[in-house]
Amino acid sequence: MTKTKRDSYHHGDLRSALISAAEEIIAAEGVEGFTLRKAARKAGVSPGAPTHHFGSMAGLLTQVARRSYEALAKQLAGAAEGLEGNAALRALTAVYVRFARDNTGRFRLMGRTDLIELEDDDLRAAVYRAMRPLAAAAAGTRGLGVPTPEFERLDPRLIAAIAPAHGLAHLATEGRLAATMRSGEVDAQAQDALVDEVLRALWP
Amino acid sequence: MTKTKRDSYHHGDLRSALISAAEEIIAAEGVEGFTLRKAARKAGVSPGAPTHHFGSMAGLLTQVARRSYEALAKQLAGAAEGLEGNAALRALTAVYVRFARDNTGRFRLMGRTDLIELEDDDLRAAVYRAMRPLAAAAAGTRGLGVPTPEFERLDPRLIAAIAPAHGLAHLATEGRLAATMRSGEVDAQAQDALVDEVLRALWP
DNA sequence: CTTTTTGTCTAGACACTGTTTAGATTGCGT
DNA sequence: ACGCAATCTAAACAGTGTCTAGACAAAAAG
Q: Which residues fall under the DNA-binding region feature (chains A, B) (predicted)?
């Protein structure tokens, strides 16, 4: 409950306070529980204030999505360290799926193209940086050149690497991977084992 | 514009009229353009009427999702006719991706677990029936038994078959597959060719 | 053929939502 | 110290999903 109080009329750092508030709400209640007014209340500010900093709700959520892609990029960056070929692809995919499972709210937001501004340059750059390790692994595995944004859009081998990760991640967030324990919680260990099996079937 | 007029106080078949209205709205404006009141207006009925038939908006959308899964099931049913092994998996995945591309609104709805009632029995049955051909192909390819619902939840080989299809379909609806033509339209032919390449890389 | 009962639908309200407008308040550069 | 620009508020607007009464009509019961 980071209800940012404030003494002065001006907030001081409302922009990042709103982003933090949004992230907390999304982590706690999911994207469907998020509301622009709720974020404003959490930052201790009037309902109209966010508009001035982000233009619209999509502007704020775009920043949250950007930061989420940066978090994903950080987790993916070191995951293939010292690994090559299919082993690298397996490790990266496993991290991708774990990220989706452990950050369901953020991951769902990243897929909500109706809530964020897909054409935002910073967001696109973050997406590119996040996908970079996967592209490098795909290129390394199958003997391709240095990945560029254009390459990533079109090369079938990279898409073949991304698609299973994306699909598994979605299945994970929908609770369709592995057995769920009572109370709706997921058995993370069993899920990891299942994902590992799937990955060995796809990339032996 | 199926603005169902009516002469009598009672509608006669409001339930299916609302489902049709919802489907038309989703096809034309996407899930994000859908509104329960809009569907009610289209059926020529007051805003509170739908609640009586479906309990809530999620109830109506669950029916739309169910019918969408049935449509998908119908398209998948005959796609692997006469094919075996990886060829069957490739054909089924291609159909899955085409369905997502040609029915973006419905496909997006199927993934919106916050808008539909996932635990609805009819919906679950429809999902199961839709996934059946993929399960059969995966079982046939790799020597497994007859697929059952429990099997489909847990077997890594089936998940390995579903995940790429799911991932590719999501990438397709987000416009990240193949080059998009000006005006935002997708070059379907080029996309099919790309998907074919991807599938041959995954399942040679 | 009436009467009752049951299922449909309407009207209006409620508590929300995101966004807009005009105005109040403050910090900063000169 | 003053004016300007940035920042935030207050109030309103159109729209949402859902709830509670009650109006209406078709089917069942007498």
A: 35-54
Reported as a pLDDT band with limits 50, 70 and 90, residue B12 is confident
A143 vs B: CB within 8 A: no
Residues A78 and A131 in one domain: yes
Task: Give the model confidence (pLDDT) of A102-160 as tens digits.
Answer: 999 999 999 999 999 999 999 999 999 999 999 889 887 655 555 666 655 668 888 99
Q: Which domain holds residue B114?
A: 65-202
Query: Which residues, in sequence order, are bridge partners of residue A180?
Result: A186
Provide, as residue numbers in chain A, all residues whose Cβ is less than 8 Å from the Cβ of B177. Answer: 159
Chain B residue numbers touching A154 (CB-CB < 8 A) = 178-179, 194
DSSP A45-88: --TTHHHHHHSSHHHHHHHHHHHHHHHHHHHHHTTTTT--HHHH
Strand C neighbours among B 6-45, CB < 7 A: 9-12, 14-15, 44-45
Q: In this structure, is the CB of residue A43 within 7 Å of any atom belonging to strand D? A: no
**Percent of all residues in chain B with a pLDDT value above 90, rounded to a whole number:** 72
- Within chain B, what is the greatest distance between any pair of CA atoms? 61
The 3-state DSSP class for residue B118 equals coil
**Within a domain: B189:** yes
User: Is any atom of nucleic acid chain D found less than 7 Å from the CB of residue A11?
Assistant: yes
Does B179 fall in a domain? Answer: yes
Asked if A184 reaches chain B (Cβ–Cβ under 8 Å), the answer is: no
**Same domain, yes or no, for B124 and B38?**
no
pLDDT over 80 at B48, yes or no = yes
